[in-house]
Records
---
Amino acid sequence: MNEWGVIQTVAAVIALFVTVGAPVLKLNAAITKQSVLLSSLDEQLKQISKEKTEAHKRLWDHNTKQDEAISNHEARIKVLEEREE
């Protein structure tokens, strides 16, 4: 193999690395970006879940208070109706 053959072989190997390396680097950057976004979404989902749980607890507490008030009103109405008879 003469020196031009060696230069051509080295150039072909370099071209192969550049041809394969560029998409691999872009893919690596995309995977890293997706990983960061996924971590961010995971944190947001945990926060939303926590807020949702607290909101549901408040709603159920309010519902319980309303049930007690309605029950109290029904008892008072029943007493008034019995008095009138």
---
Amino acid sequence: MAGGATIFSKEGDGSVALTEKQKMFVQEYLVDLNATGAARRAGYKDPNKGRQLVTNSNVLKAIQEAMRKRSKRVEIDQDYVIGKLYEITEKKASDCSESDLKYGNKIKAIELLGKHVGAWERRESGPADEGSEDELSRSLRELAEGLKNDD
């Protein structure tokens, strides 16, 4: 892999020992988070080996550390991503050809934010009143109505 930050520390500083092939797997895994593809690119004959590697505690620790270092290096974290998604949800959208933001993209941003806050998870107990609407559902409904009125 050309150019790139060192992912692994020297022995004795709490880092885990990995084989050269495992180190290559970790670097390749960061490309697309696809274990099978990373195993193939790292030179494993059986690409299914990737699924086994991501469950190996040493490899998993190396992946997590590499991701932490990358996040720090590029200054992108969960708060940044959520902030950008929120910005998209607040922008005006249109499906006309001149629009910078299409409805589908805005809806996808809303969907991703909804997943983040657990809006789509089933609740063990329903609302006290079957006719009641929780705050998030009400906000999403109002946002959808606002989108319809933008046309």
